[in-house]
């Protein structure tokens, strides 16, 4: 490994003492965050602010497609990389693996190569499905993290393993939330054994730990498992809050996922969601995806100014870094709802139906009233009208819409019921960060990159279904006349 000194786009004193990394392994590149991490690594290498000899991405086979094909279809073809030179991907090594398996499911030859050459690992993969069962969430977050740690411990020249967690591993408290492991009522391995042996179910475990949902519980347990098993392995756990559209890179407003904040915004923007149960004055902690990507990369390469542990102390506990906006820079719940409605109600921004926000609050009686008359009833009327027309597809679509609206309320409620007061050593956002301007970028990006293509696809599907129905009708008429 050569000794060229690397710089970064923002000043960092540590950068001058770090040797050029030989091989960076990245997981989760088919996901929203992973793509932006990959784009930033390539872009910063191209502009000379970071240096590395090899960039390896680990992708599993899925849908009958090999990893190389999935890399081309889901990554290379993504607009996320449109600002890079056309040949940007040609020297990236794609390896087949499965994070659910020991040694991450890589072949013996690949394992030998990674063990000898890997110096840095950025682990972005994980399951963020709030509707998934606890068993699935544990497998795709705890098991995969343990397997990634196991692979990292085989790497003879590893300088740092960076794991992506979530700031919401800490259940709500009125006290400041610091960069440290969350206290559990019992050791994580004991809690996991109770779950695996069926001595506790998900509801009982959530009641015991105080977590609001299965996802945050799984992420918390994953952190503890890594901390218990890391030994002398240099590990950083990065905790992003609500990840949303990019502020600057790869370009302002980039987003390709309906997860997290995009779900309620989309539901309001399309005119379906009209009520939200939450504290109107609760501050949401929202962070741009490119800020998270920069944090992950800088933590991996030793360029970070964030976190609560000495990188050079090999005997230290896991370094934990919050990647958050803090209460000073987040939108309030009411701003989220009515700002979204105002933006998408403008004639040039209407996507499907003109949106309307009817109620945001924590009064259960008012919420149920507005929910029934302004949200539930219109969808049920649409379903009944479709049934009267014998439009089974339309009726099923209405039922599906109702389920999705209910899921948005259920899954997003814990974000907006309380304010989470995260604290960190240094901000991941620039001093001149403007939360109102950023929220406008989020709305613009979601409309352009997600909602307009979605509605166009829906309208094409509806047109195709109408054509098929008309063709069937004509065929029946011809058979009747014959």
TrEMBL record:
Signal peptide: none annotated. GO terms for molecular function: alcohol-forming long-chain fatty acyl-CoA reductase activity; alcohol-forming very long-chain fatty acyl-CoA reductase activity. Keywords: Lipid biosynthesis, Lipid metabolism, NADP, Oxidoreductase. It catalyses: a long-chain fatty acyl-CoA + 2 NADPH + 2 H(+) = a long-chain primary fatty alcohol + 2 NADP(+) + CoA. Its EC number is 1.2.1.84. The keyword Oxidoreductase applies. InterPro entries: FAR, FAR_NAD-bd, NAD(P)-bd_dom_sf. Residues 26-294 form the Thioester reductase (TE) domain. The keyword Nucleotide-binding does not apply. One of its GO terms (biological process) is long-chain fatty-acyl-CoA metabolic process. It comes from the Eukaryota. Catalyzes the reduction of fatty acyl-CoA to fatty alcohols. Belongs to the fatty acyl-CoA reductase family. PANTHER family: FATTY ACYL-COA REDUCTASE CG8306-RELATED (PTHR11011:SF45), MALE STERILITY PROTEIN 2-RELATED (PTHR11011). This is Fatty acyl-CoA reductase. It comes from Coniella lustricola. The lineage of its organism: Eukaryota, Fungi, Dikarya, Ascomycota, Pezizomycotina.
